[in-house]
Design a protein that fits this description.
It is a single chain. This protein is of the alpha+beta class. Helices cover 38% and strands 11% of the residues. The protein is globular and about 50 Å long. Keywords: Metal-binding, Zinc, Zinc-finger.
Length: 112
């Protein structure tokens, strides 16, 4: 089990440079545009993000504003329920289709 999560982390890391970690659609509201505020253990308002991993596509969560830095307090909380297998497959397929269209558009623009 550890090897599968390790390999998926490696896969996600390798995609960062290629733009695969960008949200497939723009955020409609900023990460701090919600009320009432949810405070992390640093006593700071926690931003609201959207996961686009295969396991949690489109699922919103709160994370310490210093997440993945030495100052990270470790605060993390899901907002949305976990998707059903059907919803997960559908969202991942749509995410991948959008990313493919964006890649094709970028390639066409480079050729112009």
């Amino acid at each position: 089990m550890a090897s599968s999560s390790s390999s998926s982390r490696e896969s996600r890391r390798s995609q960062v440079g290629s733009g695969e970690q960008q949200a497939p659609v723009p955020y409609r509201v900023g990460p701090y545009a919600y009320w009432p505020p949810v405070m992390c253990q640093c006593n700071q308002m926690a931003p609201c993000w959207i996961a686009w991993s295969d396991e949690n596509p489109g699922r919103r969560y709160y994370r310490c504003r210093y997440g993945l830095t030495p100052s990270d307090c470790g605060f993390f909380r899901w907002i949305d329920r976990q998707a059903t297998p059907y919803e997960r497959t559908l969202l991942c397929d749509m995410r991948d289709a959008i990313r493919q269209m964006k890649r094709e558009k970028a390639e066409e623009e480079q050729q112009m």
